[in-house]
Amino acid sequence: MRRIVSLMTTTETIASPELQARVLDALTQCTDARRDHFASHLPALDAGTLSQVRAWAILRQVRGFEAPAMGEEQIKMPRSNGSQSTGRSNDASDAQMRYAMDLLRSRVSPDERIIGTVKTAVQVVNETDASGRMNRDMARNIIDSYKDRPRAPREAAPAPRPAAKPAPAVPVAALEPGIYQLGEDVYKVQRSRTSGRLYAQKLVDGRWDYDAGWGAMKLLRAEHLMTTEQARAFGQRFGMCVNGHPLSDRTSRYFGYGPKCAHNNGWTYDKALVPDDFE
Q1: Is the pLDDT of residue 64 over 70?
Q2: 204-223 pLDDT, tens digit each
Q3: If DSSP codes are grouped into helix, strand and coil, which group holds residue 159?
Q4: Contact call for residues 53 and 11 (beta carbons, < 8 A)
Q5: Cα separation of 135 and 96, whole Å?
Q6: Residues 80 and 86 sit within 8 Å (Cβ to Cβ)
Q7: In this structure, what is the dihedral angle of CA atoms 18, 19, 21, 26, given to the nearest 10 degrees?
Q8: What is the pLDDT of residue 172?
Q9: Long-range contacts made by residues 215-223, C-beta under 8 angstroms, separation at least 24?
């Protein structure tokens, strides 16, 4: 029996230099405890006589690689529990990654260092979100370390601010019968003898036109009531009172309106104010 075992050992294929270098690199990066576990193979590795079977066995245990078929020198990518390949054999499953990420977000403060690493919770979350993958060992470590920790209390959502109350509408001053000017247009507001309601007429070619003043009541405001200065400028410009009456006497020509319009609208009308040299 010893002779048979000896013959089997001597006929094992020696791993290629590239494969042995890969094994050496894997052992260099693993933990001291894991490296001590394979101490018996280090002499063969130093001598360059490590067999191909031993090399793939070490890689499989250290990094989770699957040994290739005889004669192949590439690493096969094992499939996950699902139908799609994970791309790397040491990736956590989707369920593990989701659970670990939930623990990091709900039970670990963002700046807390993750047990067994030098990274904080927010760093691990950001790296996982960016790559879409998490190391299987890290996922197991997070789950084992934080699954029993209570969820951090969530901050209460701030109370919604009460909606701003609309500013109270400014009451529109009621119109009074009189002469109004809106831009270049002149209107006369008067009260109906039958209904008692106010209506507006527009001055068109020296005459008050009811149809042209239709809808003006929605536009006119108390501040549009014609002032003495506006009435005077109108009379001097057109040579007649805003009521369409000709300015016959000297005082009316000076003020731009007659005594009756002045009395009805509260405009100034004083003969003493007329200069002596006014014609």
Answers
A1: no
A2: 887 888 888 888 888 898 88
A3: coil
A4: no
A5: 10
A6: yes
A7: 140
A8: 55
A9: 216/182, 216/187, 217/175, 217/189, 219/182, 220/175, 220/180, 220/182, 220/187, 220/189, 221/172, 221/173, 221/175, 222/172, 222/173, 222/174, 222/175, 222/176, 223/173
More confident residue, 15 or 125: 125
The amino acid present at 151, given as its one-letter code, is R
- Of all helices (H) and strands (E), which one includes residue 97? helix 94-107
Q: Has residue 66 got a pLDDT over 80?
A: no
Q: For residue 73, is pLDDT > 60? A: no
DSSP 134: -
Facing residues of 76 across strands? 66
The DSSP secondary-structure symbol of 119 reads: -
Could you give the C-alpha distances from 21 to 18, 63, 73, in angstroms and in order? 5, 14, 13
- CA–CA separation, 233 vs 60, rounded Å? 104
Helix (H) or strand (E) holding 209: strand 207-209
The pLDDT assigned to 213 comes to 86
Structure tokens at 109: 């403060």
φ and ψ at residue 12, rounded to 5 degrees: -65, 140
Kindly report, residue by residue over 141-188, the tens digit of the pLDDT: 999 989 888 886 665 567 777 777 776 665 656 788 888 988 888 898
Pick the closest to residue 146 from 167, 124, 128 (CA basis).
124
